[in-house]
Amino acid sequence: MAVVLTLALSSLLLAGWFVLTQPMVLRRPLHEVPAVDPQRLEAHVRMLSESFVPRDYLHVENLDRAARYIAQALQESGGRVEEQLFEVEGRTYRNVVARFGPTEGAPVVVGAHYDTFDELPGADDNASGVAGLLELARILGANPPQGPMELVAYTLEEPPYFRSQNMGSARHASALKAKSVAVRAMLALEMIGYFSEEAGSQQFPVKLIQPLYPDRGNFVAVVGRFADMPLTRTVKAAMQGATPLDVRSLNAPRKVRGIDLSDHHAYWDAGFPAVMITDTAFFRNQAYHTDQDTAERLDYRRMAQVVQGVWAATRVLTGS
Question: Which pTM does this prediction carry?
Fold first, then answer.
């Protein structure tokens, strides 16, 4: 009986390992991956985190300045740019949307929020994600996708509107749903710039899974629900094949801490498949939601590799 119980427990643990971490995903190597300039990424991060501060919900003038900067960069990359305006408690806010590729078909959405928590610089959270979005746009302009894509810079991801229908991502997802648009996939870029080689620098939402991952914060993670496992596998395989950067994944219930803490959850609520691409935020970056979240703490070389990986994933998802 003991042997049977041991085998059963081992089988359960092995099954859990496969479900949670997707360990056997095969790389999808690409022969040519467009270059991403770390210096351009840093310039975007510094502009957002140093020139447009604060970017919280009360400082609409700075949010508007950031939105204009983002819109100009997206337009210069060849995107078909428009703003999605909406009003919350008497203030007007805006998402910036850029479309690439064909006008018909189920789009792939890639998004990142440009607002910050409180009056903080928000270099990693989330100027890094927006910088990645702008560099992705530059690549897409030079290498148009075969399927439709929407790049969206969201406002109002942070409190007090987080988890509400006033989030910019919720407004965008709801608008797509209202138009009966069949979103192929949504990728949320949430903090993609902080990496560490220090032992013990990486923490996890559940101690039980800690042995399944590195204890150093030197990887990027693809995070989704159990229902998003096929999308997770596709994104992970493409990202692994594009650069030497270590790519890990986690599929878990939404109630696990950190799983839904970004704009992708608004697309889940709308019924669309979505994953978050992240440096794991406060599980690694101790400057999260502090005034120490500044541009000089980020690793722009590895951040560039994240962008290359995201581009590779969009190529697969759009059939390019």
Answer: 0.93
Q: Shortest CA distance to 309 belongs to which of 135, 101, 73?
A: 135
For 148, the enclosing helix (H) or strand (E) is: none
Q: What is the mean pLDDT of residues 200-222?
A: 95
Residue 29 is predicted with a pLDDT of: 67
Using the structure block, give the residue that is written with the tokens 């399944």.
212
Choose from 7-11, 12-16, 91-95 the range with maximum mean pLDDT. Answer: 91-95
pLDDT at 130 over 90: yes
What are the structure tokens assigned to 74, written together?
């997206």
Say how many Å lie between the first and final Cα of the chain, rounded.
54
| Dihedral angle computed from the Cα positions of residues 240, 258, 174 and 72, in that order, rounded to the nearest 10 degrees | -60
Give the model confidence (pLDDT) of 298-309 as tens digits: 999 999 999 999
- The β-bridge partners of 248 are 221
Instruction: Return the domain boundaries, the chain.
Output: 31-317
| Residue 129 vs residues 102, 236, 276, 316: alpha-carbon distances, Å | 25, 18, 11, 21
Q: Which amino acid is at 107?
A: P
Identify the band that residue 212 occupies on the pLDDT scale cut at 50, 70 and 90. Answer: very high
Quick check: 285 and 113 in contact, CB under 8 A? no
- Torsion-angle region of residue 89: left (phi > 0), alpha (psi -120 to 50) or beta? left
Closest CA to 120 of 182, 40, 54: 54
Three-state DSSP class for residue 151: strand
Tell me which residue of 174, 181, 150 sits closest to 82, measured CA to CA.
150
Distance separating alpha carbons of residues 132 and 150, to the nearest angstrom: 14
pLDDT digits (tens, 9 = 90+) for 278-296: 999 999 999 999 999 999 9
Q: Distance (Å, rounded) from C-alpha 97 to C-alpha 173? A: 12
Contact 251, 228 (CB under 8 A): yes
CATH number of 31-317: 3.40.630.10
Percent of the chain exceeding pLDDT 90 equals 89
Q: Which pLDDT score is estimated for 19? A: 54
In degrees, rounded to 5, the angle at the alpha carbon of residue 224 between the alpha carbons of residues 282 and 96 is 75
